[in-house]
Design a protein that fits this description.
Layout lengths: L6 E7 L6 H24 L8 H13 L3 H11 L5 H9 L4 E2 L4 E11 L6 H9 L4 E5 L4 H15 L17 E14 L10 E6 L5 E18 L4 E7 L5 E8 L5 H5 L2 H5 L7 E9 L1 E8 L1 H6 L22 E14 L3 E14 L12 E7 L3 E8 L10
Parallel strand pairs: 3-4
Antiparallel strand pairs: 1-9, 2-3, 3-5, 5-13, 6-7, 7-8, 7-10, 8-9, 11-12, 12-13, 14-15
Helix pairs in contact: 2-3, 2-4
């Protein structure tokens, strides 16, 4: 795989209304994306694609069901306020459904174990704020449960994201799986001419080069040179003014480390005041990345949610010991002469180790006090708490 020397800034789109909530969400989105990108660099030194918004959505749904230290860590790690109402207001205003000049769809779903009940308030938040469907499944039949979830994800991403969840991830202790799926497809406002696409040299570094299919065109388009970052920003619009793709090219062949050390500045929208005729050559590419998010989230400070002390009391009804066991994302992108297709799906699996062998003594029962060597010492029946006598 060649090292992509341009940073693909995930589809910058006017997803939410231009107001205080919109500006706050975009600020949070940049901060989280910068942290996420830096963490991904540790294990993905070459090509990768990730959808921060999909991860943020799943974390926000988890935050709505969390309390105490668990909620605070989820908020701090994802850069949102540690206030459930404020977080819900931010996500409630997201506009992620478009089927006209381009296709954009973000959908959520909550899969629950058949015998697992959730808090009524949390159910309403999931449905009304995050517009999520809720479906009961039998996780003990893990093959069928994984097939059910994967089929839904494939449909929502138009078969771009397949086999998201492995059956081995699920079992009798699984109580819930939160899933977000995002699909995007748009044509360039000015498509590239495929007849001009030719093999060209791509610099991996100063010493190494490889051949790549390079798309070519000449356009009047926004361009900005940021001398402080040592990079040129090129914005290519799609047919709708809502969405565009920004390419960030370091001025020096070995200039990526300088950019990646300043990701917050790179991710901010640049002052594209200058529209000039630009001769453009960009690689035609397709890639898919699978990311285990648990180590990344822990490095961002989200640790309590993965332990037995996790507090998801706002999600559950009874005294369940629910905690996260796995959070992953699979993302896909393809950039061609015609336009861009991208998809992503993120899931979070929760377990309750007491759930697989529930024992709630809320009805008459027999009790036996046994000496492991000498046999039964006491036996009794408990059928009515009112009839018990307590000696002082």
């Amino acid at each position: 795989m060649f090292h992509l020397a341009t940073i693909l800034l995930c589809l910058s789109a006017t997803f939410i209304k231009i107001d205080a909530l919109s500006e706050e969400f975009k600020r949070i989105n940049v901060l989280f994306t910068a942290d996420l990108y830096k963490e991904l660099l540790k294990t993905n030194p070459e090509n990768f694609v990730v959808c921060p918004l999909s991860i943020e959505t799943v974390l926000a749904m988890l935050h709505a069901g969390a309390g105490g230290r668990t909620a605070k860590e989820l908020a701090d790690g994802s850069k949102v306020p540690d206030n459930s109402i404020k977080v819900q207001n931010l996500f409630k205003e997201l506009k992620l459904q478009e089927e006209q000049l381009y296709t954009l769809r973000s959908v959520n779903k909550l899969y629950l174990a058949n015998r697992f009940s959730i808090n009524g308030n949390y159910r309403e938040i999931v449905r009304n704020v995050f517009k999520a469907e809720i479906e009961n499944v039998n996780f003990s039949n893990n093959e069928n449960a994984a097939r059910t979830i994967n089929y839904w994800v494939e449909n929502q991403t138009r078969n771009k994201i397949k086999d998201l969840i492995k059956a081995e991830y699920l079992g009798p202790y699984t109580v819930s799986v939160l899933v977000n799926a995002i699909y995007f497809n748009a044509d360039w406002l000015d498509p590239f001419d495929s007849l001009l696409t030719k093999q060209s040299r791509f610099h991996l570094n100063r010493a190494q080069q490889v051949d790549v299919e390079m798309m070519r065109t000449v356009l009047d388009t926004p361009i900005y040179v940021n001398d402080q970052l040592g990079a040129t920003f090129l914005e290519l619009p799609y047919k709708s003014e809502d969405v565009s793709m920004t390419f960030v090219l370091p001025q020096d062949i070995d200039g990526m480390p300088r950019l990646e050390a300043n990701m917050q500045e790179v991710l901010k929208r640049q002052p594209f005041d200058d529209v000039r005729q630009v001769t453009i050559a960009i690689p035609k590419f397709k890639m898919e990345t699978s990311i285990s998010l648990e180590p990344i989230l822990k490095n961002l400070g989200i640790r309590d949610a993965f332990t037995g002390s996790a507090n998801f009391s706002a999600m559950t009804i009874n005294d369940h010991n629910v905690f996260l066991t796995r959070v992953e994302q699979k993302a896909f992108i393809e950039v061609t002469e015609k336009g861009t297709t991208a998809g992503a799906a993120t899931f979070a699996i929760s377990e309750d180790r007491s759930f697989g062998a529930t024992f709630i003594a809320n009805r008459p029962f027999i009790y036996i006090l046994r000496h492991n060597t000498n046999g039964i010492l006491f036996v009794g029946k408990f059928s009515n708490p009112v009839g018990t006598k307590v000696s002082e």
